[in-house]
Design brief:
Chains A, B: Pfam families: Aldedh. Chains A, B: It is found in: Cytoplasm. Two copies of one chain form a homodimer. By secondary structure, the first copy, chain A, is an alpha/beta fold. Chain A has 15 helices and 16 strands. The first copy, chain A, has a seven-stranded parallel beta sheet, sandwiched between helices. The first copy, chain A, has a four-stranded parallel beta sheet with strand order 5-4-3-6, with helices on both faces. The N and C termini of chain A lie far apart (62 Å). Chains A and B meet through helix 10, helix 15, strand 13 and strand 16 of A and helix 10, helix 15, strand 13 and strand 16 of B.
């Protein structure tokens, strides 16, 4: 099934979203929260319609022979839909990120200056076949006073359409115009391309998914982009690392949830530490079924080690595979991370505070850990509530992005005739 | 004279800048400030070399027949160079925007979280033939711990090269590596294009100049961009506007410095106000030699009014020309601004607070004024000290950008073996 969209459709949707964003910006926090609660209860009431639609996506997925992990992300259940609803309820309880005065002062001429947070306007959300993003992103967008244009992965299109239909029905009962949630109902890549350049109507694009999707957006968009999520994270075990701590962090960062972006993909090990701790390291790899891809020196001591090449250093395995790199100094580790890291999360394990400080200053990433696992780079782990993604770029927002990342500021100036 | 650059050169420069940025990030505030003071005194000592180089650019400019305003911006003098030096001294006195803990907390498991400001890394500055930007941008970049790659307008290339040579000599006497200031010494557009896509080595591009330059960067860059400066600013005179205040603000916003981006380009006038105040309005236009381009209704009452078309509503005149649009309601004014505004600075003149509130909420711009001139959208007017430009985009920084806009944040996590 391929639906087609023409430029006019997508543009009309973006224009409608922009218009709806204006109405939305006039609503009170209470009105937005009530709407979120209505969305939540309507999703629960109509979960059957969504499951029915989801079956069609699952059937097509099975025909196409997608792997288990993919099918799992695509698959919905009553319980999952109720979880989505509860997620919306949680967002309704978070502080409204708009209307906050970041700073305010009065000039000598009595002109009042207030720097106030306001919604971005229209968010273009481009994501893979994960229907949960349809609900999560909509909740965060509406709470922060933004309209949203949703372009989900083609393999989840029937589920996403059903979810959006339910949300539209729910919004009709609220103060939020249903046009604030636009769904691009096509598998045509052209439609996505059009979103990339609609600077007049779309304020930001948020791609959420793998590297290919993110690069496609970054390389083709003229609309500003908030990059999220690719994590080629490293653990550097320094020569002065505590053995037990290093192994415990390594195991956690690699095996706790290997498929998430804050999992470790490469461990860089100081040569001296490796020599002293090789037995325990090998035992740990075996115990946790970790597959090792190592450089020459690592493979010389670790059994069942596959020689690692460029592609390993750059790989986000998202599995129980790990690349093992040996280093002579902390500076070697820093340079390796500079070359292959994705500016997500990086850790150093050492008892030496000076080495740790140098690592934390010179490594360029959203989050740097001294003696802790990279797994904490996560909105809920850090106490942000829901997150729209983890920014791996430097502008606007870095690291886990909660509601404040979906706002900008406006200088509101109030005078009585001031001129310059 | 056309110098050529090949990809390797520009890339090598960007790589050198990235490396220098690392050294720079380890310096103390005092070391950076000392370097700025050395830059200042060296510029003063060697002003003669710079003036000599400037003569060559001026000669070429005269041959090419550039207008007076252009030649004025290009032209240097001992006094102007000493002003640049004093600008650097002022920057040395501003607070260091890096190393500040934005927020910090401890998780239940004792993991310390600190969100700390850090330099962006490498700034690519793309600007027109204004040699002052070479010094100003370098000072702000270095103070905030960033390396800078300078690509100035071709017509100032000899002056810029001389300024950079002096700065390089000065930096040799400081802790800042001279590689932190890179100058693309070519008039070849290819070199600029290369900068646009060097995501690995350049962290942000800041175009400063006219709309064509900014669009060229936005449309071609994959490196994130901080848009600056184009200002098609409006004054809306509501039916409930005080006559004297409205005319005084209109005159200030249009005539104080017509060539700057926060000057007004269009005045939108409520029909009722126009009917009541037309004599005084006409008298004001005459008194200040303002050339009027109006819609049908405006031209019906204002003598010497040229009929305005689409190009007038979108025009940043930067002169004593003004477009005059009549409106039935404040909503009309808001819609006109939505269509033609550049999200810079917009003003409403009214005694009605409700109307003002609606205007301030619904108009999408960096700065919104109630009963004041748009001319205050300026770093020095708002007390920010020096500014790198005025952001007209919504991400990262909006409005006048001082030193903090040249930083990002890093989450610094300190633990004792925490896993999740």
């Amino acid at each position: 099934m391929t639906l087609t969209a023409n430029k006019t459709n997508v543009e009309e949707q973006a224009i409608a979203a922009k218009k709806a964003a204006k109405s939305l910006s006039l609503l009170t926090t209470e009105e937005k929260n009530e709407a979120l609660l209505t969305l939540a209860s309507t999703l629960e009431e109509q979960f059957g319609n969504i499951l029915e639609a989801n079956e069609k996506d699952l059937d097509r997925g099975r025909e196409k022979g997608f792997d288990e992990a993919f099918m799992d992300r695509l698959s919905l259940s009553k319980e999952r839909i109720f979880d989505f609803a509860n997620g919306l309820r949680e967002v309704s309880e978070l502080e409204d990120p708009t209307g906050l005065t970041v700073s305010g002062w009065t000039l000598e001429n009595d002109l009042d200056v207030a720097k106030v947070t306001v919604p971005l306007g229209v968010i273009g959300m481009i994501y893979e076949a994960r229907p949960n993003v349809t609900v999560d992103a909509t909740g965060l967008a509406l709470k922060s006073g933004n309209a949203i244009v949703l372009k989900g992965g083609s393999n989840a299109i029937t589920s996403n359409k059903a979810i959006v239909d339910v949300m539209h029905k729910a919004l009709e009962k609220t103060k939020i115009p249903k046009e604030a949630v636009q769904f691009i109902n096509t598998t045509d890549r052209e439609a996505t391309q059009q979103l990339f350049t609609m600077k007049e109507h779309v304020d930001v694009l948020i791609p959420r998914g793998g590297g290919a999707l993110i690069n496609a957006v970054v390389n083709n968009a003229t609309v500003p982009v908030l990059e999220t999520g690719v994590g080629n994270c490293h653990i550097y075990i320094d020569k002065e690392a505590d053995t037990k701590m290093a192994l415990s962090i390594l195991v956690n960062a690699k095996t706790d949830r290997p498929a998430v972006c804050n999992a470790a993909e490469t461990v860089i090990i100081h040569r001296d530490w490796l020599a002293e701790n090789k037995e325990q390291l090998i035992e740990t790899f075996n115990k946790y079924n970790i597959t090792v891809h190592g450089d020459e020196e690592a493979c010389a001591v670790i059994p069942d080690c596959t020689p690692a090449g460029e592609e390993d250093w750059a790989n986000e395995y998202l599995s129980l595979d790990i690349a093992v790199k040996t280093a002579d100094t902390a500076a070697d580790a820093i340079n390796h991370i500079e070359k292959y890291g994705t500016k997500h999360s990086e850790a150093i394990i050492t008892d030496n505070k000076e080495t740790a400080k140098m690592f934390m200053t010179l490594v360029d990433a959203a989050a740097i850990y001294h003696n802790a696992s990279t797994r904490f780079t996560d909105g809920s782990a850090l106490g942000f509530g829901a997150e729209i993604g983890i920014s791996t770029q430097k502008l606007h927002a870095r690291g886990p992005m909660g509601l404040p990342a979906l706002t900008t500021v406006k200088y509101m100036m109030t005078g009585n005739g001031q001129t310059r």
